[in-house]
Model the fold of this input.
Amino acid sequence: MPDEGIFLTTADDPAGKWSEPHLVEPGCGLIDPCPLWDDDGRAYLVHAYARSRAGIKDILRVRPMAPDGSRLLGEGKVIFHAPEKHPTIEGPKFYKRHGWYYIFAPAGGVQSGWQVVLRARSVFGPYEDKTVLHQGNTSINGPHQGGLVELETGQSWFIHFQDAGVYGRIVHLQPVTWKDDWPLIGTDQNNDGIGEPVLRFPKPKVARVAPVTVPQTSDEFDSPTLGLQWHWQANYHDNWAALTARQGWLRLYAQPAKHKNLANVPNLLLQKFPARAFAAETLVEPGPGRIWLETGLVVTGRSSAAIALQTTDGNTTIVFRRNESCTPVKRLDSNKVRFRVEVAEGGLCKFSFASANGDFEPVEHFFQAEPGIWVGAKVGIYAISIDSGPSRYADFDYFRFAAPTRP
Done:
């Protein structure tokens, strides 16, 4: 909570139940805290500062902490400030290895930054710094802000993200090699002592062979619970959806739309973009209510667009939404409608619609998807109305991804 301070919450099991947040240290702009418990039982905390709140973006501070993490025990010390070399530094991770204290920290900003490692023999420094990973001549921009993972086999790995714009923050895993107690992340392609990220590399050596798995994307809505690929635009309410009201269908209960732009509507059921180019299709059947209802397929980020149907008094009209505008497209006799969006490389979207057994008809306009705030664009489904109630709903038969039919 960067406006209020650093908080702690605890649980006996990672699955919960978690305690109410406990204020460890009040302050505005204290971000990215990371603890370290030393060999003697003493505890420390390193943190950065948010320029948007504190006016600072290039300082790391280490502070003594109560061993139970409940409070900080003093101001500690600024252990790193090199704005000419690293104009932004944040997201520190604290480690101790072979008698060295290490702080891994991303520098230079989200989209084009690099990974820095600090090391010292004392927890409060002095720390020396080294850039250990940068983009180099690769396609992986801003390879930083991650954590070190060490295996029982002796291998070291670094997990980090890449800001890919409309596709969000893509996770990468890089090999780590150690020389003179300095890590080198990725591979040093030009022998300058700085690693570059790799796209392909032999997998980590782990204790057992694990099957290759990929995240689920398509959904036939045959399960009593939603898959982990789905998330709601805002905190979920129990009256938003049901998977048991109609076998093999997902029922979305329409909620009042308080915003004209779907980017600000809470009851959107969404997924991240699953690939650089893809098509998504769904089939929807609205409930029998005669009050105005709108339901369809949406792409959203900072801006939004949707292909949807509106029903009033039994009449069905296809509409195209773009931000706050809503344009009628065509009247339909069918109450079951398929919607499709094709997303080209870069996020250019083309929407189309069809009756349950008819051919798809494209909407005239294209839509350029945009990332959200610190996240990528998303695709999903929704149902809205002038008010809520059990009779105002839309049933979705499936949500399927496929390769796009256009370049």
